[in-house]
Amino acid sequence: MKALILLADGFEDLQLFAPWYRLREENVRITIATPWGQEATGSHGYVVEADSPIAEINPNEYDLLVIPGGQAPARLRLREDAVGIARTFLEDGRRVAAIDHGVQLLISAGGLDSRKVTCHPSIRDDVRFAGANYRDEAVVVDGSLLTGRGNEDLPQFCRSLVAGLAVRA
Amino acid sequence: MKALILLADGFEDLQLFAPWYRLREENVRITIATPWGQEATGSHGYVVEADSPIAEINPNEYDLLVIPGGQAPARLRLREDAVGIARTFLEDGRRVAAIDHGVQLLISAGGLDSRKVTCHPSIRDDVRFAGANYRDEAVVVDGSLLTGRGNEDLPQFCRSLVAGLAVRA
Amino acid sequence: MKALILLADGFEDLQLFAPWYRLREENVRITIATPWGQEATGSHGYVVEADSPIAEINPNEYDLLVIPGGQAPARLRLREDAVGIARTFLEDGRRVAAIDHGVQLLISAGGLDSRKVTCHPSIRDDVRFAGANYRDEAVVVDGSLLTGRGNEDLPQFCRSLVAGLAVRA
Amino acid sequence: MKALILLADGFEDLQLFAPWYRLREENVRITIATPWGQEATGSHGYVVEADSPIAEINPNEYDLLVIPGGQAPARLRLREDAVGIARTFLEDGRRVAAIDHGVQLLISAGGLDSRKVTCHPSIRDDVRFAGANYRDEAVVVDGSLLTGRGNEDLPQFCRSLVAGLAVRA
Amino acid sequence: MKALILLADGFEDLQLFAPWYRLREENVRITIATPWGQEATGSHGYVVEADSPIAEINPNEYDLLVIPGGQAPARLRLREDAVGIARTFLEDGRRVAAIDHGVQLLISAGGLDSRKVTCHPSIRDDVRFAGANYRDEAVVVDGSLLTGRGNEDLPQFCRSLVAGLAVRA
Amino acid sequence: MKALILLADGFEDLQLFAPWYRLREENVRITIATPWGQEATGSHGYVVEADSPIAEINPNEYDLLVIPGGQAPARLRLREDAVGIARTFLEDGRRVAAIDHGVQLLISAGGLDSRKVTCHPSIRDDVRFAGANYRDEAVVVDGSLLTGRGNEDLPQFCRSLVAGLAVRA
């Protein structure tokens, strides 16, 4: 099992660490990719090393895509390489887990039409215009797509994330 | 001539001060409204007193609505009163000037369909899904709707803002 | 299953959130206690509400004591009520999980003699003088006592924490 | 029409941006000069690129000198090149616009004797000892010398600044 | 022996603590006065309790006036009570010790004419216009007036401060 | 008379400057050593240049060792070279002055057995386990060992520090 995390400066720290550490606890191998392979700084100041530039990522090598929220997705959605990776995962029906503003990258990837989705409330209107069925819930599972609302929902988000691993095994 | 500025914490400071001071230079009377009438703090630390809570604003008393960007619009678009004011201005064809993320409030107000619009690049996909005709330009004027891209475009944004005043006189 | 977390200002944020959210994922009921029942602010700025002042805690109602690190334990070890709670857990042989500087509270509680322990390297000499058998390892389990070294070891710390829950069930 | 802005770290951000953007709105060509041509950081964190080191500036190429306030003028008045430029403008009777602590540079240039001047209140005694006729007013125009008191007076300062452009044309 | 320290927000921390602690070492009794008797915060974040509002100070009860620098003197020189205290000390020929921007308060008090003085270089021109004989030296002693240049000169400033105590004994 | 100050990032600023400037006032020659000879930043932001890397220090060339507190000693006690220097001073009976958390380095050096010591209250239990006789006093002098409790005690700490110089002369 291999997971890919897309990251950039301004990520919401807990939304990286909670799923990252949870997946490591399950022995999932994880690659963190940032725009130029440089380290990324969270909105609360945690600094994380990257394993790879996004441009060098082959999405077919990964079973799971994780997109933390905060201000990082606003940076990532401006990059064709990051948007393309999210699109590939969505189109192939492979597992995607996005939380909070992480859903912004999925909007840009154009794959939310008719999908049930939750996200940070401040982007709920954007999600609706993108054709998604917005739910104000802690987490929403729609097939291979897992979305979460915010920090307070991380325990449920992680539980669903790990439950999904079992399904794939 | 009376103008209304909708503000909340996290506004991009220059996007408030440049049009605010520019309109004062033209002797436009300005009301700053915040969610509870409390002071608002910009992302660079400037603190601004409010004249009124948003809920007590009657949009019909104003000729012009100004919406600075930054993180304030993400807060404002969660409030029915703020969204309703923007919707009233758009539907009545009265003048609206939004810059950067200020356009997020217009998306939530649901009045961007077929309008020519610019905004911060990170929300261009949201603007497109909302039906708008996105342009990557410094400022875009579409009838009574003026939109601007970002800080660097404030001189042009202010010039268009003031030119519009003359049209209305 | 009920767990108690002792907290004060300056806690290392991830060392609170990772075990807290992990235990919530397992449906453990958790009480966060601070010196006066006030909210606590982590060294990275996260603010957490408390459920109770420490002085009103009855340690016999809890199965597990969790002590995050950072600068909070230096504050807690100055308080007789916090030290007394840790001592009660250690003397009764009930489960204790401390990480990083959290071990400082256990030193003050006087129950580390001949116990195998890991901790933040900067207090390893204090742990040795307190009679403990210091190990430079990610996590150390010595009977009902679980200790962890630092942030990077949180995945293993959480795995041991949850494994211990199963033992008690 | 060409304007020169003298800048250094610690400038009061709005006192740079309001006149700078206002002049750009009027299509004035502007050169920003800093001690070594390096970028300058305002007291609220805005970072501005410089067009030139101060030492390479020929004051005779400019019609207008603008001196924002904050802590930058305290740095500039220690440099002979910056003081010399201000002195040249004052002695030649060319236009000078200074606001807040920007007036400190004019004190050091030695050209305030018998001039009517306003400034930040905390340096009013220095202005008086320098021979100036201090006024506690929003803006003061004395021939080719325009001075302003502080941020709140920027709309009037900019109005006078632009009115002066017309006079010169 | 009694000393008075005039303080306000923005004081340069070391310029308070070095002479304050040094005088305490010599068993001098010290009163710290701030504008409203409130605590004051230094530019590096140290917070100091005040003993008295400035308005309630009777300068005749003190043998020595100490004025730290930083941004506090710019606030103090705007207050008649603070300026009046400095003037009383200077006119009575009682001991005054000012360092860095602390000399700004002496300018406003109008008693520097023909006095030998050092100060922060950025206000040297103000000191000259005030009639003083400026010296670019670590410390300058002119009768009962001791002035210092900056942080690096604090050891010499404190030595002169204490030597002055002996003279008065 | 030569003194050595051991420093690292996170030192409590006043605990460096008060004794450092006080010793300079007495014309003591001082060497500041940091882990790699790099500059060190205090917890309040003061930046200090180093004279030497710790590894190049020969402790026999110094009459006095000064160890400021804050978070620097937690870094220093992890380094064999720093611990070794402290051990040499203690074993040789040469003068050592430590304040606040500076005493942590002495614990690691293993020379506190049966010594009378004060320190920051949060490490008093560590001091006791190390065999020292802990006193909750401003300063404690035990032969050639001077210890201080915290910032508020710096005047007494410096008085004892200087008194000790006289003894050695």
Give the helix proportion of chain A (percent range). 25-40%
Question: What is the terminal separation of chain A in angstroms?
Answer: 8 Å
Strand order of the largest sheet of chain A: 5-2-1-6-7-11-10
Low-confidence stretches of chain A: none
Tell me the name of the CATH class of chain A.
Alpha Beta
Q: How many domains, in number, for the residues of chain A?
A: 1
Strand content of chain A is 15-25%
CATH topology group of chain A: Rossmann fold
Structural class by helix and strand composition of chain A: alpha/beta
- Helix count from the secondary structure assignment of chain A: 6
CATH superfamily of chain A: Class I glutamine amidotransferase (GATase) domain
SSE sequence of chain A, one letter per element: EHEEEEEHHEHEHEEEH
Largest sheet entry of chain A: 7 strands, mixed
